[in-house]
Records
---
Amino acid sequence: MIDLSTWNLTVPASHDSTLISTQQLANGYRSPYFRRNDDGSLTFWAPVTGGTTSGSAYPRSELRETGRDGTPVFWKYDRANDRLAAVLTVERLPSNEKLIVGQIHSKDEPGSMRDPLLKIRYRKVDGIGRVEAVVRRRPGENACDSHLLLDGVRPGDQFGYRIDLDSRGKLQVAASSEHGQSTTFSQQVDPRWKKQNLYFKAGVYVLDNQGPSTEGGRATFHWLDSAHR
């Protein structure tokens, strides 16, 4: 069973509220965009025609970390060792075949915009599924570096990722697949990220907003855990 007591959820609803509170999740919230399965896993669905949040042109069905009282959590990396880990299956992709399934995001700060430090991206290249770590070089800049973690991961294959950002600014991303493939990538993040208020996100963020309502991104998370120690 995945513990949802420290998350809220954004869903791509067009007319109703797009923010599902921590309390609503605790009370068993479910919808076409978010389903609890009998085995304890969680399925996220975001159609390309779904509603969007301010500052984003794309739909998402995505968890965002909070305190147990539902208050949004922000953290600075130099104050703890921060970790997000997940095991999941990507089941459907939009027509551009790109999907974000995990992030270290950043709060609005002067000159920074709402830039993710890190995105875990699943995409197909020449028909082959890949899992990548996309790292933004500095806050407020568009320049990112993409690092291949796993190759040959087909839709329906189970894989896992683990993100660690320690108090010295060392970022490490490990990933493994059900076929026995595994890899670890690490780098020192730019010290300017030290000033940013960061937070984890996990689910499906669909990098596409064109097509019919039957098109979108779907993934099932079999395990999800975060920690700050």
Note: The CA atoms of residues 47 and 215 lie 6 Å apart.
---
Amino acid sequence: ENGRMTPIDKTAPSQTETLAFEFDLQHAPAKVWRALTDPALLAEWLLPVVGFKLEPGAAFLFKTQPYPGWDGTVNCRLLEIDEPRKLSYSWVVGDMALDTVVTFTLTPTATGTQLSLVQSGFKPEQKPNFGGARYGWNMMGGKLVELLTRIP
């Protein structure tokens, strides 16, 4: 199918704390990095982003349509930036007391980039959030793959 790769869910069956996905992408790390850090591109596969600056400690928001139980806002703070290898930020959703960390790791391969996506810090009682995030990343990961085939 023209090398289109879907995200591979690497989450351990017994796991409740950490989600893990892997992508085998046929795109250079610099291009993948751009999709992870360009606000216009982030809005196309992840969520609309407000106030994103690529500086350690910088706070920003993902903001989307509210729905019952969620105001549509994710509060983030950049924790680690190692361009184009690693990007990590806190992912905090207030209403749900969800305090997690999302980490993207980019590893060059012969054909492009292996992208690892990990979200950690779910509490055992947050199984519904864990399941929702797992579903969400799988869907958004598919959109990321599709976006990368479209952009130069």
Note: The chain has three helices and eight strands.
---
Amino acid sequence: NIYIDLNSEQKKLYVAQLEKTQKELDNILSTEGFKKGNFKILQLLTKLRQICIDPNVVYDNYNGESVKLEELLKIVEESCLNGHKMLIFSSFKKVLDNVKSVFEKKGITYYMIDGSVKSKERMNMVEKFNEDETDCFLITLKAGGTGLNLVGADTVIHLDIWWNPQVENQATDRAHRIGQKKNVSVIKLITKGTIEERIIELQEKKKILSENLIEGNSEEILSSLSEKDIRKLLEEGES
């Protein structure tokens, strides 16, 4: 795991959204209750997760840096120089669209799969990636969790933390298929003192165990969490 400090601009946005989320959570719990307010609570938590990855996903007018995209670019450029091929996963298509733009400016070659790419086209891209010199394969977590054999890669990068670590492991396994001849490195980028660290704490306590969490269904994601757990996710500062 690579832990990264938010820059001042990202931190300011995160803290402002965190305070807003805490107030809105109190309002939802007092008016609708925990169970009825599931969907709204998940939306609030998702927005915090997105700010950690790239504020541009939430704020169209954000022109500042994203510490994760900067760190990703460093890792990718160094890995390319050393002849590595990478799988890069995110839960959010817009995040990968932004990564794609950065890669195009820097001349980094890639394929990309999200939920809109048809099965036949996916298989064609997978075959090409395993044989050619393309540097990276960008994949949304939902689209790339199962069924893809990507032994051409020897590095897996998770740009964001998903609720259920088993889902991340399934994605990582795309590079651990029969025919893989290299050691596979797995990198997770985590922003310090944010909801991402709190999710990892919950994972370690085996709080989030549902097999179905990939769909993003609010009831599935929040069913194993208590109100106390949600408030813990909204704590600020170092673990």
Note: The mean pLDDT is 88.
---
Amino acid sequence: MSNVRNAFFKDCVADAFFDLMKNKPVNKITVTEIANRAGVGRMTYFRNFKNKMEIVLYKLEQIHTKYYSTLSTQPKTKLENAFALLNCIYSNKEIYLLIHKQCPFMLLVFFLLKTVNDTDTITENKYMGFWFGYGFSGLIYKWCDEKFKDSPEEILTIVQKWINIEN
């Protein structure tokens, strides 16, 4: 199966799953329901995903990939990276709120996968990755809890007060 076709099916499954999540708890959603909503067979589901949590990680990865591809210039500094990430999350807050409500630990998993390089041979880098991963996940968790009442700019200002992020 071509990569484009495979991505299309994965997107269909992910969109169907998130649509079902709006009205039903994750643990009550069946593979058959997801496949039917997506207009694909159960085998297409299993060819692309082992479980529902893989769908959540896939959707988050797609959101972030798409967001960063739309930026006119890629972030270069830590501050620019942090702001771009906050804006990406904020511009997709409906999805984040749904994940937060249904399976909040997946946000932790996603950001840990993004920030932690456990194969890094420098101990300091490993610890720093975990510190940022867990800390950032907690920040996003609370931001979701607050229904995104603060803007990305306000969150960035708060974070800058806590830690010294230099350009």
Note: The chain has a mean pLDDT of 89.
